[in-house]
Predict the 3D structure of the following.
Amino acid sequence: NAGVTQTPKFQVLKTGQSMTLQCAQDMNHNSMYWYRQDPGMGLRLIYYSASEGTTDKGEVPNGYNVSRLNKREFSLRLESAAPSQTSVYFCASSGAYEQYFGPGTRLTVT
Amino acid sequence: QQPVQSPQAVILREGEDAVINCSSSKALYSVHWYRQKHGEAPVFLMILLKGGEQKGHEKISASFNEKKQQSSLYLTASQLSYSGTYFCGTALTGGGNKLTFGTGTQLKVEL
């Protein structure tokens, strides 16, 4: 099992550009999450999906959109990137309790 | 609202013990603990549920005081491999595990 995979691993964008971060899990989990991690801020929830076909906002949803394409895949889209969105982005999935995190995407917006 | 973790950082010598605390201003359904090593993804350590149920790794010990909305993680006989940043995540309701994480406690274990 690959667990949770994320692409790309690194990305540099210019202000105003758009991009989609991809996430997939092979553990048959219902719930999936997108977090951002900034120095000194811990992990902050952007969006989550409790099951296929449902999504809900987390703490910091502004500037992002998500799609739960199917049970395996959960993508995060930045429509018009801003320097404040420079961060490390983690995708996670969970069954009953434990959240499994992907390796992360390091995004820089210049 | 983010839970508050203390201390922010701690340095131990191998074999020493440490306690990391997590406090919330809201009534909690569960508290989750994760460890993250530099440049890596967070890894699950333990979950403590309202009512006393716990699930996690055998070598990790933690407590959850529901009345005070506080949890503590106990690291005993520390090893070099314990180094990393520890995060608590709190859930206000059951189902879905929608967590709010604290800002972390940096733990360094030295020889």
